[in-house]
């Protein structure tokens, strides 16, 4: 109930995070930074002086996003690297490139996601939403963890959703072979994000690396692209009336990435730039 109350508060207040914090000499990786909330996050962090690495599956789209950031932040230090979270080999290649080129990773934002897609599997056989939204980010984070620890103070931010409250992880049927429902699968993956954030916080206690789980609130993004024509039309109609822009949806992610007062907090869940 607390999650729903804060989500409603976030919807009504539409908070925009205000901070003059600079991120000079900081490196941030944003998965899915080529569109929506990720792109707005990339723009904000670049404007604060951070080196921003957009990690995305569609490199050409990533380059377009990077150019759009540069138009608003002419001196932006922003690069694009290929990352397919549905493939362990792609994740490992990405990490190899980062470890060779980046001496520090101060901020990792696991933002990329997929929702309500038709039943399908990742290269390694995971149900697609669980595989991309959780497992891919789980592997990415753990492969980068030593570099992140060497960059303290550092932060790891996992973008989840209020949908996690409807989630239930079926450990005996982790790939949902016995019955696939695209919405349930999404909720399942978002709950995994929350649990991962909490457990990672416990394991990183005392290291100088802190973790945060974010609910962006209802936001107009490409996340619903797999909905059917009628459902998509209905969602599009209501999103114009009720949903936040991607910029406003990115505010809590930005808050968790840069707010100095959060340095002693870890493993918690945030919505509307506040703890739930």
From TrEMBL:
Keyword Metal-binding part of the UniProt annotation: no
Name of the molecule in the record: Retinol dehydrogenase 12
InterPro entries listed in its UniProt record: NAD(P)-bd_dom_sf (IPR036291), SDR_fam (IPR002347)
Keyword DNA repair: no
Gene3D superfamilies: NAD(P)-binding Rossmann-like Domain
Assigned keywords, A-Z: Oxidoreductase
Gene coding for it: RDH12
A molecular-function term among this protein's GO annotations: oxidoreductase activity
Protein family per UniProt: Belongs to the short-chain dehydrogenases/reductases (SDR) family.
Pfam (any one): adh_short
């Amino acid at each position: 109930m607390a999650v729903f109350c804060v989500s409603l508060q976030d919807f009504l207040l539409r908070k925009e995070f205000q901070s003059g914090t600079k991120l000079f000499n900081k490196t941030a990786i944003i998965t899915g930074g080529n569109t929506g909330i990720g792109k707005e996050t990339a723009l904000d962090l670049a404007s604060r002086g951070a080196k921003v690495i957009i990690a995305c599956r569609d490199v050409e789209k990533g380059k377009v996003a990077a150019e759009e950031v540069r138009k608003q932040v002419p001196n932006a230090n922003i690069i694009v690297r290929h990352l397919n979270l549905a493939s362990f080999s792609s994740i490992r290649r990405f990490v190899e490139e980062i470890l060779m080129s980046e001496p520090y990773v101060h901020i990792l934002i696991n933002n990329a996601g997929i929702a309500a897609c038709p039943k399908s599997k990742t290269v390694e056989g995971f149900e697609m939403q669980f595989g991309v939204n959780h497992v891919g980010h789980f592997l990415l984070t753990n492969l980068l963890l030593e570099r992140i620890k060497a960059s303290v103070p550092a932060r790891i931010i996992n973008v989840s959703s209020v949908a996690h409250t409807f989630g239930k992880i079926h450990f005996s049927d982790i790939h949902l072979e016995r019955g696939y429902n695209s919405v349930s699968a999404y909720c399942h993956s978002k709950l995994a994000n929350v649990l991962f954030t909490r457990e990672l916080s416990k394991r990183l206690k005392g290291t100088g690396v802190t973790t945060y789980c974010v609910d962006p609130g209802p936001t107009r993004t490409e996340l619903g692209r797999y909905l059917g024509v009628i459902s998509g039309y209905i969602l599009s109609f209501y999103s114009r009336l009720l949903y936040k822009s991607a910029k406003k949806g990115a505010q809590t992610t930005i808050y968790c990435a840069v707010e100095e007062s959060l340095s002693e907090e870890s493993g918690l869940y945030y919505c509307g730039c506040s703890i739930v």
